[in-house]
Design goal:
about 750 residues; Rossmann fold; Topoisomerase I, domain 2; 7 domains; four-stranded parallel beta sheet
Length: about 750
């Protein structure tokens, strides 16, 4: 009988942890939440002090049963879910769903999946923190009340299938407010003047900035002024008026928190917040390194830049060994208002110093490597000394009317942390810190005029948000928490409120209309300060300062009044549909609209029983409701389309759930974004098919398909494995995959325990 049961969220985490524990420990996974509010009803008893009616998730019934069975056989049950509110709530729900005996339960938390952290957690177990649970309950109940009470108003008055939410609606408002600023912006004309001057054999470019004294700044508002100054400069002599050199320091950025990780991955890798968090989750739960499942980073949902003493020590030792002690800074942790239990809010960093990115690059998928290297470099850089730069400003005087020009040069005296890492920029034109060496100057030096260039310019509106800058804005305003940024970015785009043009976020017409109605009737829902204060109140619940039900009540009661008012007074908005014309085949209307899952085309309305059932098709990438033509819309209904043959089999192109694809026999190949499904030729399709065949061939080490069931030895993202029928089996570390026979594969499969279906 197992003495100890350890429950985590994911099977990957099980694999990573199990090697640190002895044979007396059994690990099992809950696969996330096992209980939640019901799907098809409110599930909150408003009259009974907002009591939630949790139900066991149907798809988790087998998981709950297995946990319950294992718990009965165990002396102690360790709940090892994630070290945050959500993890605490999952642990609490597991107790209730599986009816675990509270006398056996111990709650453990750890910020990194290492032997030291795990054993430390086992020695410092505690009970489930009900304050953390209540904070999560408050958030969940509030989100449910808004979703079930406010969303129907939008669906009734604007368009079916719309939704609202505490954080998502504020995010949409921020993007809409910026769009209004852009639309209202009136460009102002201004001119710049640049002089190309010779200093011996060097050409210096200097910009006009003042007249008489450096304090008397010049603004050139029109061409007439610019031409007058240009003419003065053309007949002027130029000499060095002043030279000032200042040593400045560029300090390294702190190690990543959740928001800065998402921002930097967006800038440097062009990743969405969702993708960043998915890859980070994999790195945290564990990947295969040298035949072992290793957790490479610490917990990725955090709002603290604090590093543990051990993390500082191991990073410092690495820097001294690989870069010399002249690069090593004395790192001081920032002062924080609060610290969670057992370092739950340490920064995102590598879990081990023994796995430099280059050392394990060949064993990591490309995306895993990119994000891991980003986290590694940022962590080490945060422990290093600032870069030192000598910035020289040379002021140049023109003889006529005493116009002043200046040029700036930067010389790196000490590269410091930049030997490892440079932070990405939202504004790619920002070159303030770029190296630019000037020739030697002395005061009074004469310079020879080469060219005077005047240029008309206009002031520009504030830039549209990117995912990175929107996450930054939400964080600075106190909207949301580490766990909410990525889902918020996904939801506002999936619902059709915001669209992405390149990296820029722009509100759709639907997003603008929804925001306007929310501003008119639910001003508190989308008020930034109000929403930020609600986040603070959730923190107060976590700290035991407020009762969660009182907070929910204070939020809901005025909301309920506003909902009643909106039903009475909000005008119905005729929005979200464009009639493109008539389908010549059926004679029904062709409509472009926003559906539940985004923009779509519908043929026929299906208003009554006599009407044909409507047909639906999703828009292709780059197509928009506002611009799609009838011909383009009708083409979406021509798929699947036969385009030729390959090795005697029909080749078709079609639209699927995950995008356009090519199909031949039982083979499916995704069509890459650079190819339009409408223009894919048979030659294009054959190239894609053969590339996939080559990739699949490299994947297969052995093909024993003559066996019943068929047996394959395959290369996978985590190393080689055996596939027998529909089941996969690990290959022992001391076995070379190429040496495997049918008999050996069967033997390995029999020696591995059967995984129970969830």
């Amino acid at each position: 009988m197992a003495k100890y049961l350890v429950i985590v969220e994911s099977p990957a985490k099980c694999k990573t942890i199990e090697k640190f524990l002895g044979k007396d420990y059994v690990l099992t996974a809950s696969y996330g939440h096992v209980r939640d509010l019901p799907n098809k009803k409110l599930g909150v008893d408003i009259k009974d002090n907002f009591k939630p009616a949790y139900t066991n998730l149907k798809e988790k019934s087998k998981t709950i049963k297995e946990i319950s069975t294992l718990a009965k056989k165990s002396d102690i049950i360790y709940l090892a879910t994630d070290p945050d509110r959500e993890g605490e709530a999952i642990a609490w729900h597991i107790i209730n769903a599986a009816k675990l005996p509270k006398t056996k339960i111990k709650r453990i938390v750890f910020n990194e999946i290492t032997e030291k952290a795990l054993k430390g957690a086992l020695l410092n177990s505690r009970q489930v923190n009900e304050q953390l649970v209540n904070a999560q309950q408050a958030r969940r109940v509030l989100d449910r009340l808004i979703g079930y009470k406010l969303s129907p108003v939008l669906s009734t008055k604007i368009q079916r299938g719309l939704s609202a939410g505490r954080v998502q609606s504020v995010a949409v408002k921020i993007v809409c407010d910026r769009e209004r600023e852009i639309l209202a912006f009136v460009p102002q004309e201004y001119w710049t003047i640049e002089a190309s001057l010779n200093k011996d054999a060097d050409i210096i470019k200097a910009n006009l900035f003042a007249k008489d004294t450096p304090q008397n700044k010049l603004t050139i508002e029109n061409e007439t002024q610019a031409t007058d100054i240009e003419n003065d400069l053309l007949v002027s002599d130029f000499s060095v008026d002043d030279i000032a050199t200042k040593r400045i320091q560029r300090k390294p950025a702190p190690p990543f928190i959740t928001s800065t990780l998402q921002q930097e991955a967006s800038r440097k890798l062009n990743w969405s917040s969702k993708k960043t968090m998915l890859i980070a989750q994999k790195l945290y739960e564990g990947v295969m390194i040298d035949g072992e499942q290793i957790s490479l980073i610490t917990y990725m949902r955090t709002d603290s830049t604090r590093l543990s003493d051990d993390a500082i020590k191991m990073g410092s030792n690495f820097i001294e060994k690989n870069y010399s002690d002249k690069y090593l800074a004395k790192r001081q942790n920032p002062k924080t208002k609060k610290q969670n239990v057992q370092d739950a809010h340490e920064a995102v960093r590598p879990a081990y110093i023994d796995y430099p990115p280059k050392k394990i690059e060949a064993q990591l998928e490309n995306d895993y490597y990119k994000l891991y290297k980003l986290i590694w470099d940022r962590y080490l850089a945060s422990l290093m000394k600032p870069a030192e730069i000598d910035r020289t400003t040379v002021t140049i005087k023109a003889s006529k009317n005493n116009y002043l020009l200046k040029t700036i040069g930067n010389v790196v005296v000490f590269d410091g942390f930049t030997v490892i890492y440079s932070e990405g920029k939202d504004d790619e034109t920002d070159d303030h810190d770029n190296v630019k060496k000037l020739p030697p100057f002395k005061k009074g030096d004469s310079l020879t005029k080469k060219e005077i260039l005047k240029e008309q310019k206009f002031t520009t509106p504030p830039p549209r948000f990117t995912e990175a800058s929107l996450v930054k804005e939400l964080e600075e305003q106190g909207i949301g928490r580490p766990s909410t940024y990525a889902p918020t970015m996904s939801v506002v785009q999936d619902r059709g409120y915001i669209k992405k043009e390149g990296k820029k976020l722009q509100p759709t017409d639907l997003g603008m209309v929804v925001n306007e109605q929310l501003e008119a009737y639910f001003d508190n829902i989308i008020d930034i300060k109000f929403t930020a204060s609600m986040e603070n109140q959730l923190d107060d619940i976590q700290d035991g300062k407020h009762d969660w039900q009182d907070i929910v009540k204070s939020y809901y009661m005025p909301l309920d009044d506003k909902i009643k008012n909106a039903y009475d007074k909000m005008e119905k908005v005729d929005f979200g549909q464009r009639v493109l014309g008539i389908d010549p085949e059926s004679g029904n209307e062709v409509i472009a609209k926003i559906g539940r899952f985004g923009p779509m085309i519908q043929i026929g309305r299906g208003n009554n029983e006599k009407d044909e059932k409507p047909k639906f098709a999703g828009l292709l990438k780059g197509q928009e409701i506002e611009t799609i033509t009838l011909e383009e819309a009708l083409e979406l209904f021509t798929f699947p389309k036969h385009i030729g043959a390959y090795e005697g089999e029909d080749v078709t192109v079609n639209l699927g759930k995950y995008g356009p694809y090519v199909k031949v026999a039982k083979t499916f190949v995704s069509i890459p974004a650079e190819l339009s499904i409408s223009s894919v030729t048979i030659d294009d399709a054959i190239k894609l098919i053969e590339e996939k065949k080559e990739k699949d061939a490299n994947k297969t080490i052995h093909d024993f398909s003559e066996n019943d069931p068929p047996i394959y030895v395959l290369n996978g993202p985590y190393g080689a494995y055996i596939k027998i029928g529909k089941r996969n089996f690990r290959i022992p570390k001391d076995v070379e995959p190429k040496s495997l026979t049918i008999e050996k594969c069967i033997e390995i499969s029999k020696n591995q325990p059967k995984r129970k279906k969830k």
